[in-house]
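Ticket #4471: structure export looks truncated?
Reporter: QA, pipeline team
Priority: medium

Steps to reproduce: submit the single chain below to the structure queue and open the exported record.
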Amino acid sequence: MKMEPKIDEIYQRFLKNEATAAEIEQLFLCFEAGTDVQLQQSIAGFMAQAIEEPADTERRTHLENLQMKINAKLDAAQDVQDSIRHHYFISKLFSLPAYRIAASLLIIACLSFSAYYYLNEKTQQEQIKPGGNYATLLTKTGQEIDLKKSSNQVIQRVAGVTIRKTADGQLVYTASPVAQNFELEWNSIITPLGGRYKIVLSDGSLVMLNSGSKLEFPVGFRGQERRVKLIGEAYFEVAKDVSKPFIVVSGRGNVEVLGTKFNISNYPEDGVIKTTLLEGKVRFTDNVLQNKKILRPGEQLSLKGDDIQLSEVNAADFMAWKDGKFIFKNEELSVIMHQLSRWYNIDVDYNSLPERRLYANISANVSLSEVLRMLSVTSNLKFNVDGRRVSVMK
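Actual output as written to the record:
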């Protein structure tokens, strides 16, 4: 039987041990619909192609050796095949010696998905899980507090402010009426690669810090402004206070707001500062050249070197990371891999990346292998994972 293009693609991934459980089930349903001759032609064509590919030689040898070990078990199970849900499909394949390896692999996949993963010699990427709610709090005294584990407890009371770590993974600063009587005291929160964290500042503003970032902020705000410092990326929901503007110092830029929702990305290795506005209005100031720009909802300002660009964007796309998503629209592959490297704490071989722009909408809560598989489907690129190093295969 001639397969639909999607089934063709799934079967190719199956031969490489890259298909998911749902895709394997879809293969069974497809094969069960075919006649003997059609089935022989389909399996023969695919297996011939797999065996002819030089890159599959080592894997083919492995499968043949494995086949010798499992043949005895398969033969012993011959008399009880009718108890297997896919008896018809298996018995048809089993009568075709030329396709014994393919049949065996599908039997194993049907009986146990865990056994399917056992067949895969390159499962390192399956072990690379997404990041989580990790951060370290640095106090004025130099104390380092690991915020990895969730709890609901008071960490400190300092300068009239209570610092509490909540059970849902937030750090909350609550100022008492006497907080204004204390001297200004700063804290820092640092997220590692593979970590994110939410902070509620003493004025009620919410900050979500992305991976590999650092936020410096006062325990309690004093004076006529609310000023914080950012390295990396963060999403802000600023509590409105017209008497005290909220200022984010990030690299050579200042973002000043009264009350709004926006995102700032300022990773030093990116060489660009991006401010994206979702709601309200902000003013961006280049502290070197003193250039000032007003942003309105749906606008993004990029400062690269001395060049300032203001453009209209879908602001939610650039903040999707806070909701556990990667949304890329005509984005450079190198930029995509930079984001993945921070969230999955991986090392990327950027020299292997072709100059490509991709579209993708991917959950950030799945394993690295699933993300790379989806990027591969949309781009036809093949990714190689060696330990925690990722490259594009030539």
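Status: closed, not a bug. The export was complete when the record was re-opened. Leaving a note from the reviewer for reference: The two ends are 32 Å apart (CA to CA).
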